[in-house]
Specification:
single chain, about 120 residues, alpha+beta, 3-stranded antiparallel sheet, two-stranded antiparallel ribbon, 5 helices
């Protein structure tokens, strides 16, 4: 059974190690904001590109916290360790720290923007 810590996020989840997948290209602008370039592949996307003029690549701009965390996703650091880095960078502005990080990784995972090591 997964044990919940005082933040309400399971300890097992916080011990996971997220990493950036090989296929996602990304860049950082002069303000430190990360943009993910997601290629829209597959039959439905090709049809949408031709008929609806949808783009071949979607650009996803991360917020300040996400942009800080993204380059750190090496598959070595746990979410707990990443949280300590976020707390050191943003202090009180990062709270509630682990709830926000858990949600961030759940969203990235739902779009297959991260892998777990």
């Amino acid at each position: 059974m997964m044990k919940k810590n005082k933040t309400g996020v399971s300890e097992n989840y916080l011990e996971r190690k997220p990493s950036r997948p090989e296929g996602i290209s990304w860049s950082v602008d002069e303000k430190g904001i990360v943009t993910l370039d997601i290629e829209n592949t597959g039959v439905f996307n090709r049809i949408a590109q031709k008929i609806l003029k949808k783009p071949k690549v979607t650009h996803i701009h991360l917020d300040k916290t996400g942009s800080f965390v993204w380059p750190l996703l090496d598959g070595e650091k746990t979410i707990i360790e990443l949280g300590k880095d976020v707390e050191a960078e943003f202090g009180e502005k990062a709270n509630p720290l682990y709830e926000r990080l858990a949600k961030y990784f759940q969203i990235l995972d739902s779009y297959h923007f991260i892998e777990w090591k």
